[in-house]
Amino acid sequence: MSKNRCSRCEGSDLYRSYHDNEWGKPLHDDDKLFEFLILEGFQAGLSWSTILNKREAFRLAFDNFDARIIAEYTDEKVAELLQNAGIIRNRLKINAAIKNAKTFLQIQKTYGSFGKYIWRFVNHQPIINAFTSESEIPATNDISDAMSKQLKKDGFSFVGSTICYAYMQATGMVNDHITRCFRYKECQK
């Protein structure tokens, strides 16, 4: 018997696995939160499936998303990344990842963890929506607008409101699984 899923994940085993195991699950681990922040920035203007297909290459190219290492990237490393066909070779996005790593580390020092900083936008509790159709799901909301504004003020790049909302969805800050999806209730635990 097949499970009811959000329709956006149908079409590839990789996307289905991501949906079934990661998307929308409340995430508090700083390293994983950083990975999603970087991947969402690279996703700007592209499909999430493109990023998923390149995720392992990104992990290899970006030192498993270790912010301490990325913050120290040199011009030579940027040049190397620009030659890596396994990732999105966009200089602005690569430079933003380096800048975001530096800012991320500063936020950790200031707040004790990035998780404490980012989850405060939803009062440290996931927002549980009750959409019955994917057409109801917004691309942004007031919280993603405020998050984007604050992240930019704090020094992050490639964090527009649409990216912030997608980030909230991916990290479980907002549960946008449709109500008939089997993950809807699972992501509330």
Automatic annotation (TrEMBL):
SUPFAM superfamilies: DNA-glycosylase
Transmembrane segments: none
A Pfam family matched in the record: Adenine_glyco
Classification via InterPro entries: Adenine_glyco, DNA-3mA_glycosylase, DNA_glycosylase, Tag
PANTHER family according to UniProt: DNA-3-METHYLADENINE GLYCOSYLASE 1, DNA-3-METHYLADENINE GLYCOSYLASE I
Name the UniProt record assigns to this protein: DNA-3-methyladenine glycosylase I
Annotated organism of origin: Carboxylicivirga marina
